[in-house]
Amino acid sequence: MADKGKCAGRTPEGQVVFAEAAAPGDVADVLVRKKKDDYLLGQLLTIHQYSDLRTEPFCQHYQECGGCQWQHINYGAQLEHKQLMVENALRRIGKVQTESMLPIVPADRTVYYRNKLEFAFSNKKWRTPQEMALGEPADQNVLGYHRAGAFDKILHIEHCWLQDSPSNEIRNALFEIAQEQELSFFDVVRNTGFLRHVMIRVTTLGEILLVMSFGERDEKNIKRFLDAVIERFPDLTTVAYCINLKPNDYWLDLDVVQYYGKGYIEEELGHVRFRIGPKSFFQTNTTQAIRLYNVVVEFAELTGTENVYDLYTGLGSIALYVANRCKQVVGIEQVEEAIEDARVNAIVNGIENTVFYAGDVRNILTAAFAERHGKPDLLITDPPRDGMHPDVVKMLLQLEAPRLVYVSCNPATQARDLNLLSEKYEVKKSQPVDLFPHTYHIENVALLELRS
Asked: CA-CA distance, 140 to 143, in Å (whole number)?
């Protein structure tokens, strides 16, 4: 397996070839789409010998969707390759010598494991080769996923295996109601159309959040549409919407109107209960998030006396999870709405030993900040995919916290940062946790200790 879910092989002459939807052990013909000096990039055509790692994909949309790239590979093999991915990143990119590389924590559920999904409305359908051969037109109203390489067309989804009930029922009902009411679907090329985007979030407590994005400011049709949805699904916990007139789908910078319900949903991660609003940042795999945070707790070895810094804290999920095991947690997060959520959730849980700051970690985490809040005994960092800014790494080296737990969703950038931190730290152990079965994405937790 290679980068981003592709598979790497070689031609009979020894040249490296990358192809999607292949499996280690396949012997196949590949149609070359791009030629580089040191490799070829192509498309799988004919498989002459199937890999023993292959299994039958279970989703009807697998070939066209591209969301679950590894459905054709059995889950045991997926775990082996994710383990290798982390180990190779740390050893080859980071030049990291860890005392212990622990085995990956598998997901307890490999389907219906996401609590959040987003879908797009469109008046242009992505057609399968069979549909094109039958002459099916592209001008059709659809609701589903963006297809890679086709920004102006949407793959219509009938059943998605990523999110539990009633997600599929709600999405299909949205489509039916829109058709019945003869509402216009979004045209991304012209930036016109009434129905644009929807987010569905469900929790293990049975609560449901629905956030609609409309491309036109039409209050009458907004009310007509949402009322019909609520009538069909009276158990919806919260319904909200925004008006997005921009040329892009990003809506988190827009005003969100609470239309129905209490304005948030609730979820539990172990002993902590969270309120999640329309704009809240929250782990998308609830059950595996608990396992991930338990690895953090295990690595942290808290005794109740520690001063803890939690960088890139989001809505404070890790900070609140460890707060009962330490003296104080100081969380920093760039998104102000997330920090507001963190403060509310601390109150909801009766947690009084946390303090949260909104702003760029690079600007907030300074020597003066550490002097005001005390030197950290433990530092937890969970940065975005790009990893930590070099200035943040320099500050961590200056702070010299005795222990550092680094949670990452990108082993490559984690390895880069670990290499920089090796100036003063040694990596004691690392453990991957699989939050996203059937994809190449993997989380990894590393424990660092200050050299004596």
From this structure: 10
State pLDDT tens for residues 208-225: 999 999 999 999 999 999
Whether 409 sits among the annotated catalytic residues: the reply is yes
Task: Give, in order, the Cα–Cα distances in Å from 447 to each of 52, 68, 164, 180, 343.
Answer: 36, 30, 34, 55, 27
For the stretch 40-84, pLDDT in tens is: 999 999 999 999 999 999 999 998 898 899 999 999 999 999 999
pLDDT digits (tens, 9 = 90+) for 287-317: 999 999 999 999 999 999 999 999 999 999 9
Q: At what angle do helices 390-399 and 411-421 cross, to 10 degrees?
A: 40
By CB atoms closer than 10 A (0-12, 13-18, 19+), residue 135 is exposed
What pTM value is reported for the model?
0.93
Strand partners, 7: 19
Please give the Cα distance from 73 to 80 (Å, whole number). 11
The structure tokens listed for 8 are 């790497």
With contact defined as beta carbons under 8 Å apart, do 215 and 190 qualify?
no
In sequence order, the β-bridge partners of residue 446 are: 406, 430
Question: Are 337 and 276 in contact, with CB atoms under 8 Å apart?
Answer: no
Asked if the model's pLDDT at residue 39 lies above 90, the reply is yes
